[in-house]
Write the structure tokens for this entry.
Amino acid sequence: MIRSIMIIFNKRFLTLSIAFILGFFLLLFGLGATGLVDETPPLFASAGRAMSQSGDWLTPKVNGILRFDKPPLYYWLMAIFYSIPANETWDELGSLSARLPSALSALFLMIIIADTIFCSSDNSKDQMQLALIASLSFVLSPLIIIWSRTAVSDSLLCSNMGASLLFFWRKISSEDERLCVIPWIFLALAILTKGPVAFVITISTLSLFLLTHKNWRHLLLKINIGKGLLLTTVISSPWYLIQLFKKGNIFWDSFFGYHNFQRYVSVVNNHSEPWWFFFFIMILASLPFSIFLIYGIFETLKELFFKFKISSNNTNNTNNTNNTNNIYIFSLCWLISVFLFFSFSSTKLTSYWIPAIPAASILISRSAEIINIKNRSISLTWLITSLILFGFSIAFYFSESWLVLINDPEMPDLANQIKINGLILKSQIFFTTLAIISTFFIFKFSPKSLLFLQSFFLIGQFFLMPPIRKLADNLRQKPLRKISTKIINVRSSREPLAMIGIRKPSLHFYSKQIVFYESSSPSGLVNLSERFSFGKRRSDFDQPNYNSDSFLVVIDKYSKKKRHWTNINSQNLGTYGIYTLLRIKRMDLNISAQKFKKDGIKPTWRIEKFENF
């Protein structure tokens, strides 16, 4: 018996070690090699860095104003990394410290998924394989590949909420009578990451899952809901209460009123999508293994219906719910909860689906388990997967037909640079290889087919993604870093700094100076004139001299062509990409503003904007 336990322990340790190594290289390799991508990540990074440097770890601030779009946990984690000695030496671009919370949280959840599936499949000879398939399905999701390397809170929310739900399931499915603590702690951390949405989705998932059991009252007792809610409240509520006490309606209206309630009941920032939007995102987020997810959902629904049928025919049986595969039913409830909650939201974003990806990855492993059991010579699942991969491959072979459609004002030479950097050829090789491998598995079945294809897909990330990230950084972000360096070198007497037209928070992050962002319209010109006199901003690190007779302006080439900006006398200090740095006399700005005011142009900067930075 001891020998059997040791074999299981060693196998579990090996499984988790493999998952950790694969996840470590995929998520952390080259994490700080490129700069922050506008526009949201620099706002997060600026708030985290400001906490570290100012010592105020309670109230997030960016560019001299309060930032209450998210709770503080992600800011705190960034601030910890920014506080490590010699940060600017080992994190030259400032992006590594900002992205590490996302990457490490995704790695953590990847390990939890692998361990949960391994432990839930203890009666299966394929438990190691299923655990790796589930964990790789999670980390290879296109959305996780992107957001786990992005300095925003979505990956951290997914990790905390995912860990909470998986530990809830482990508690419910076990005979452990100890107090349920760990899931409630992770739920509290999820609430501190993104607010009440974490609580709503977690409780919805648990409620749906418990309703699939006749003995739901007994299972509910296992998670100690009264003490658990108290623990979660004690951990998560102090920051909210402190901000309500300190900032009152400013915090309430911004965080709860706008960023939570208004985003849910009305469309914000033109993010309106049709009701079927998350059906599409569900498929997109699991590519190229989407058909395995659909098959996993179908098989789990069949299992659930069968379970209800057995339950209705055997009213005295209270133990029929102890199904060895109820992790899949739990994951289905999880996926449905996320889908329904965000489908009813008026504002819909692709990133809203991220909390459902752990559930989707577990359901993909379910399809692998069923396919292994059926062991068919020709698989429709593999046929459709091959067609998907061949579709991508063909699209890149006919790239000339769609490259001409690329029109990004911030990267006008993008289509040409894609060809010059060989990204089309690399994509052709990558997807053609995957398609050939997938086609082979249509006719030559192997229990490890899916794991084998995932391994090739993972290797391809190192082949394809680094040059893509580097190209995007060179075209979009590098000019902003260069112009920020120029600003630091040429700024005289702490003159104010403005950015006109295209708004880039990374200018504030890299220049470390207060930046006044305005549109290129005449009202933007009027706004700027007034804000230098009546809308003065200061921070702990930049005290602009608003009595200076000149100011610096970063303006994009499209805005610069507008007559009201070309008519103002200016000194050209350098052009970087599509951006030009100008020095303008305050008197010239004020004269132009007065002319527009006489023509009826009114300032708009005093109108309250919760998205303001």
